[in-house]
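Subject: sequence -> structure tokens, single chain

Hey, anyone have a minute? Need the predicted structure for the following. Not urgent.
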Amino acid sequence: MSNPNRPNLPDRIIWLERAVLVGDCVSQMLYGILFLVFAQIIYTLAIRPRQSGPRKWPLIAYTILLFVLCSVYNCMNLNSLRLMFVDNRMKPGGPTAYALSEYGKPITVIPNACAIVGDWLAAGFLLYRCMVIFHMKFYIVAVPILMYLGSVATGCLVLYRSSRPGAHLWTKTTVDFGVPYFSLSVALNVLITMMISIRLLMFRHSLRKALGPQAMSVPYASIAAMLIESSALYAGISLIFIGGYGAKSVVSNMFLPNMVMAQFLAPMLIILRVAQRRAWDSKTATTAPMTALNFNKASPGAHRHAHTHTDYTEDQNEKFDSLPNVQLKFKQSDGSYGDSTTQFTNSTRTQA
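Reply:
Had a minute. Here:
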């Protein structure tokens, strides 16, 4: 049954407008998540820095910059949506015709610029994380660095071409540069995702050999760590977008705002792990993880003794040889926790 109130527009335009509306609505949920992550980062790094060590002002400034760019993009994008579907819905050709006619004006150019600059900042941060995980070995990350520079160059061209009079993101002159730009961005994120995931899987395998089942409690070895550190969310959404953009499908309009939100969210999730001291740093692979153990205490006045119910075999002691000092936490009778440093060797386990 036909809808008598349906606009007299081609089916493709109707589906395009549906995709734009749905994509922007879903992106607001991602923005809400991003806002909560931003608040947690600022609280941990700036307001209550004791848990995360000294205040990390570069990370705080970087986080604020990302949030400001994302907020400007989101607010101006919502304003464009209002102008499209409310204030100018009777324009000949419908809301889409109005949006395309305004593409070269500041109301569209500014959020596009925020998205592209945000992509550079996010990709640069992920590239830095990759370098940290590989101990700053530039020869390993040479290809991602070159891809990043290519992404910056093509991003400038896309922004320039799409802001020309009569042009937009889907005109041929823009698509000629847009496909290489988005392809480089997606390829860079997929490559970094693979490199970081492989590195973390190797570290997880080493921990399993050294610590056995206890390795699963180490924050660097969890599946969540792999997904967050490698920015798999952004890479996945980007792949869907580039497929639709290259095929000139309306699907790209649905995933474009979500890709922008994901590119801002990905580095913030990593920064949150840094703030919580759970992110990989340059010393992670060469130091043992800290382990929390509960020890019983005979009486309030008694000396502290660490008792375990496991007999260590020679093979297990050899594994402990590769571990440096491990910080142990023991529970006292009053409910508080004390700290001690234990060094494992073949013949002795000394406690300081």
